[in-house]
């Protein structure tokens, strides 16, 4: 088969279109977690070669999203049939067709016990071959997410102040509040603060052993350690950290959640700093053991509120200034005011609004004006009138309506009085949130995405067959959207 003739400019445009298809297919949250840091390296014959910043991301994308990515490419490159994801090392991708399991070279023995945080811009995890028998790597830290790039306002000033205090204390080998739990809905800056803490501490003291992990990454490492019979080494490795940052806590569950509880207790006993972020308060994390929730609640719990107009405008202004310094592209004051007033969902949508206008200007040549913003941002603006429904809200409403405890909805019980409300809750989660089927499954006690799909189809059929049930579910939807 001939190699597709794709120039570097065409390749960039192709990747932009593919990314847009993937985001529309999987939703913004999943895209940000798994696709945002991928880069297109080359197209060779029927092979799509992408790169990612961590071995975990390479493995996860290759295992879970290969078919979807290839399908997204086929719209423009019909011959695309295979995907290879390799890891970027120092900004360069490893050669294509290199086995994913070998993308990180063995370090010399003298380097294996040195903290990877010695590179201040990107603190990483240490390798301890004698203990774990496996090279462990952390979730990638975004170099753009620093305290300097964080836009502060009344909604997040407490969280920012706490984060800076944690960083300063860690630099001076002290612990202030422990553990610290930061929570908010999606896109309000939790991950940014965790990354900023890691940057600040790593830059000030490269000897610190800093561990930043998403909950998915924590589960992956724990399950891998169990499979390789190196769980004890994994536990000891975690307990030697100076600063542990866990993101997306709501996705931690099962034995991994239990292990996190043990690790948390050991770290607190040893006065090591722990910072956790999630999309709900600790008391609402039903998938976690009560002792873990109690431990988190007993520390400092810091909420981030929904952004007000002033903070939204400051964020848009900051992004517009960055665009101006990079491209020499001016955003009129009226456009900045319009975005801040019209896009009220969260910070990522504000970033996306600016990016869309830049793309529209570059692709069409139209000046950046309010009419262009109205046309380009129509879907974001329409979304402002719809309340953002969370899975936690669905669990509360369904639990109250059917008089089934929330922990029963997340349990393995199969009795009819639990199964039917659970299926309805999954159906509502798919209908009213942007979460993917695997995400919904994780939030419902670690179920497989096929279980969620079965529940959704089952409820859809029941609605067709039972008019009264259909009206009941419509009532639940109205209650959730009010």
UniProtKB/TrEMBL annotation:
One of its GO terms (molecular function) is ATP binding. ATP binds at residues 187, 189-191. The keyword DNA-binding applies. GO terms for cellular component: cytoplasm; plasma membrane. NCBIfam families: DnaA. PANTHER family: CHROMOSOMAL REPLICATION INITIATOR PROTEIN DNAA (PTHR30050:SF2). This is Chromosomal replication initiator protein DnaA. The gene is dnaA.
């Amino acid at each position: 088969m001939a190699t597709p003739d794709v120039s570097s400019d065409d390749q960039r445009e192709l990747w932009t279109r593919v990314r847009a298809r993937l985001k529309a297919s999987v939703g913004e949250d999943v895209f940000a977690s798994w696709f945002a840091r991928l880069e297109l390296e080359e197209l060779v014959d029927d092979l799509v070669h992408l790169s990612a910043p961590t071995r975990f991301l390479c493995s996860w994308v290759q295992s879970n999203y290969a078919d979807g990515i290839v399908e997204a490419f086929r719209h423009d490159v019909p011959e695309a049939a295979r995907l290879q994801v390799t890891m970027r090392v120092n900004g360069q991708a490893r050669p294509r067709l290199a086995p994913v399991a070998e993308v990180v070279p063995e370090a010399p023995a003298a380097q294996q016990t040195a903290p990877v945080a010695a590179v201040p811009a990107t603190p990483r995890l240490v390798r301890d071959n004698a203990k774990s028998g496996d090279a462990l790597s952390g979730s990638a830290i975004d170099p753009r997410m620093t305290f300097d790039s964080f836009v502060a306002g009344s909604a997040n000033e407490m969280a920012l102040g706490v984060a800076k205090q944690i960083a300063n204390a860690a630099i001076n080998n002290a612990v202030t509040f422990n553990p610290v739990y930061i929570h908010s809905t999606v896109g309000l800056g939790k991950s940014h603060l965790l990354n900023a803490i890691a940057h600040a501490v790593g830059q000030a003291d490269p000897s610190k052993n800093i561990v930043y992990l998403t909950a998915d990454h924590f589960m992956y490492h724990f399950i891998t350690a169990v499979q390789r019979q190196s769980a004890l080494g994994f536990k000891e490795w975690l307990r030697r950290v100076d600063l542990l940052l866990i993101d997306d806590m709501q996705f931690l569950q099962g034995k991994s959640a239990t292990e996190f509880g043990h690790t948390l207790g050991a770290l607190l006993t040893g006065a090591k700093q722990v910072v956790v972020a999630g999309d709900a308060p600790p008391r609402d994390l039903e998938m976690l053991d009560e002792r873990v929730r109690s431990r988190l609640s007993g520390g400092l719990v810091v909420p981030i509120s929904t952004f007000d107009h002033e903070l939204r405008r400051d964020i848009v202004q900051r992004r517009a200034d960055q665009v101006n310094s990079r491209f020499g592209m001016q955003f009129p004051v009226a456009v900045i005011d319009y975005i801040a007033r019209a896009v009220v969902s969260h910070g990522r949508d504000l970033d996306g609004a600016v990016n869309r206008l830049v793309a529209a200007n570059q692709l069409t040549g139209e000046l950046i004006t309010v009419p262009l913003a109205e046309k380009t941002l129509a879907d974001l603006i329409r979304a402002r009138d719809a309340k953002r429904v969370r899975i936690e809200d669905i669990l509360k409403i369904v639990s109250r309506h059917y008089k089934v405890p929330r922990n029963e909805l997340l349990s393995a019980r199969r009795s009819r009085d639990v199964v039917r409300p659970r299926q309805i809750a999954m159906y509502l989660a798919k209908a009213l949130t942007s979460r993917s089927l695997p995400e919904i499954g994780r939030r419902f006690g670690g179920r497989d995405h096929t279980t969620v799909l079965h529940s959704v189809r089952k409820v859809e059929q029941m609605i067709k067959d039972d008019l009264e049930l259909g009206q009941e579910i419509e009532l639940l939807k109205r209650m959730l959207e009010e």
